[in-house]
Amino acid sequence: MLHKPLYNITPFTALDYPDHLATIFWFAKCNMRCAYCYNKDIVFGEGQIKQEEALVFLESRVGLLEAVVLSGGEATLYGDLIEFCRKIKQLKFKIKLDTNGINFDKVYTLVENDLVDYIALDYKAPKEKYFEITKDKHFDSFSKTLNFLIQKQFPFEVRTTVHSDLLRVEEINRIIKDLLKKGYKGTYYLQPFVFTEHTIGRVKEEKKPFDISRLSKELEVVWRT
Ligand code: SF4
User: Fold this and answer.
1) Ligand 1 lined by 32 (C-beta under 6 Å)
2) Is 1 within a domain?
3) Of the candidates 98, 81, 27, 23, which has an alpha carbon nearest to the alpha carbon of residue 56?
4) Looking at residue 209, what is its pLDDT?
5) How far apart are the C-alpha atoms of 35 and 124, rounded to whole Å?
6) Does ligand 1 lie within 6 Å of residue 203's CB atom?
7) First-to-final CA distance of the chain
8) Which parts of the chain are beta strand (E)?
9) Is the CB of 40 under 6 A from ligand 1?
10) Which of 107, 114, 148, 208 is the most buried (most CB within 10 A)?
């Protein structure tokens, strides 16, 4: 178990948890290696902050903030996450989890024990492109998490980061088709790739813009900038 699970804390955000003032806990380490990931320091770096230190910080924000966003990295890798969430809940904060969804058991346990209030789930790529984008082979685990959240009618959103040379409109439309088939009724968020020099896959700038007009209209899609 990581002695210092958090890489960093963003003390305040009004943007990350819908309609809530929140703090962001950035967990070190990730079980993916997405080509476009710009959080290399978090993915490969060591944690700097202990759970206890994060809780002391939270205690100082009681009455000032409403929620905690668990981001990273991949928060579900932290072995003591369930207990950590229990302690956050004792302080009466809501919890949002940002996750790639391949750690089904952890997401399941958090949801079934009312230890999370909202989830942002990354749908990285269609099955046939999943490994190329993430260097991970567990699309079926992700799919199980997606099915579970839909069937549970849990409040969550699905989102995809779009680099137009890595994911074409046809592939996003295949994701939309899969979401419809599974019964997803929420909004599907697309986030444009923002170029930096230091991505994990040393991804270049997009050669041509992503053509939003060719996206399927069967699901509500929001281009999040
Ligand atoms: S973008 Fe991919 S590699 Fe980077 S933190 Fe998220 S899941 Fe991990």
Assistant:
1) yes
2) no
3) 23
4) 87
5) 11
6) no
7) 36
8) 6-13, 22-27, 67-72, 94-99, 118-122, 156-162, 188-192, 221-223
9) no
10) 107
Predicted TM-score (pTM) above 0.90: yes
Nearest CA to ligand 1 atom 7: 32
CATH number at residue 137: 3.20.20.70
pLDDT at residue 1, as a whole number: 59
Count: domains in the chain: 1
CA distance 130 to 125: 5
- Please name the residue whose Cα sits nearest to atom 1 of ligand 1: 37
The mean pLDDT values, 10 residues at a time, for the chain of 225 residues are 89 95 98 96 96 98 98 97 98 98 98 98 98 98 98 98 95 98 97 92 91 94 91
**CB 23 near ligand 1, within 6 Å:** no
Report the alpha-carbon distance of residue 198 to residue 216 in Å, rounded.
32
Report the candidate in 22, 1, 10, 172 with the shortest Cα–Cα distance to residue 96. 22
